[in-house]
Amino acid sequence: MALSDRLELVNPSEIRKLFDLAAGIEGLISLGIGEPDFDTPEHIKEYAKEALDKGYTHYGPNAGLPMLREAVAKKLKEQNGIEADPKTEVMILTGANQAFLMSLATFLKDGDEVLIPSPMFVSYAPAVVLAGGNPVEVPTYEENEFRLSVDDLKRYVSEKTRALIINTPNNPTGSVLTKKDLEEIADFAVEHDLIVISDEVYEHFVYDGIKNHSIAALDGMFERTITVNGFSKTFAMTGWRLGFVAAPAWIIEKMTRFQMYNSTCPVTFAQYAAAKALEDPRSWEAVEGMRKEYDRRRNLVWKRLNEMGLPTLKPRGAFYIFPRIRDTGLSSKEFSELMLTEARVAVVPGSAFGNAGEGYIRISYATAYEKLEEAMNRMEKVLREKNLV
Ligand SMILES: Cc1ncc(COP(=O)(O)O)c(C=O)c1O
């Protein structure tokens, strides 16, 4: 099938449609957006200015600046226990989002199946479709804290399965896979000879003293894993469009070829700033500051949602919370529309994240504490007035 035909199969994300609807509503509080409300730390902006003054205004290598690939390799070794050669096994991207289509395009054949735990980040299934494959949703359950289990995977694996996408900490549920979960998933991947795409963009935002683990660090997994990460969430740099992957050299070589004919390379002065940022302790202090503030907001929203009668798991990571709204009798779309029009609060229907998301909504708490308080009050008022809880 031609790429132009496949493009017909993917639709604009439901989240975008909701934002169009929300655009005209005055006094709206948006809990819909999936990006940090913090500004990029000042010293990182200074590094970008320094880069411009130093003449980082030209094209760079397709795989990214060597200085950033080296800084990423060092970070992966120290923080994630992943040994990747910066010359051949690390690549810088124009945002982590590029990783999915580009990496799938290196190995997927027409009709190959890719297992995706659902609810899932909106880019995964379209990336699989564009790369010529078939996305297969593997439902995860509130009863298991939305953590992917091998029992779930076993029901959906087939002869055609070629890859598995995992996302920890998870968007939209906030679930975090344990090391044991990852070990079991790794064994499953080896048994079925699957490539694993591991999306770890929220790795630094975990709570209750837990740590996020990287599957590529487990014995024998690097050779079959594409680790995806980036700067958008970690350093509040969404608009800079910078991400990275670590993967076996044959995958990086093909992704680099793809990039050659796509965006050529990520912005060079942004890459310089990111390389400097990775090695500057002030960046990690800023990350810890953001993490603490997200944690404070998480506690508030979790408490208020349960108090108002929406049963909600306490998420362990990312900056999302995923309340169950099924008992109100409304679909997640109806519930979100009601909140938009009556409470002037934008939330995202769980159905936007796959079939397993129905019956839930996603709330992003990457919003000021006071706004979250006000949004919770408004939601509760509407729910009580309409006798929905
Ligand atoms: C789970 C997940 N992966 C990847 C991305 C993409 O991040 P980037 O801004 O680096 O493209 C997002 C952005 O929302 C995300 O939530």
- The percent range for strand residues is 5-15%
The largest sheet has its strands arranged as 2-8-7-6-5-3-4
Mean pLDDT value: 96
What general outline do the C-alpha atoms trace? globular
Secondary-structure arrangement, i.e. CATH architecture of the largest domain? 3-Layer(aba) Sandwich
Number of strands: 12
CATH superfamily of the largest domain: Type I PLP-dependent aspartate aminotransferase-like (Major domain)
- Rg, nearest Å: 21 Å
Number of structural units classed as domains: 2
| Uncertain ranges | none
- What name does CATH use for the topology of the largest domain? Aspartate Aminotransferase, domain 2
In which range does the helix fraction lie? 25-40%
Ions, cofactors and other ligands present here are: pyridoxal-5'-phosphate
Distance between the termini: 48 Å
SS class: alpha/beta
Q: How do the SSEs run, as a string of H and E?
A: HHEHHEHEHEHEHEEEHHHEHEEEH
Main beta-sheet annotation = 7 strands, mixed
CATH class of the largest domain: Alpha Beta
Q: Oligomeric state of the chains? A: single chain
Number of helices: 13
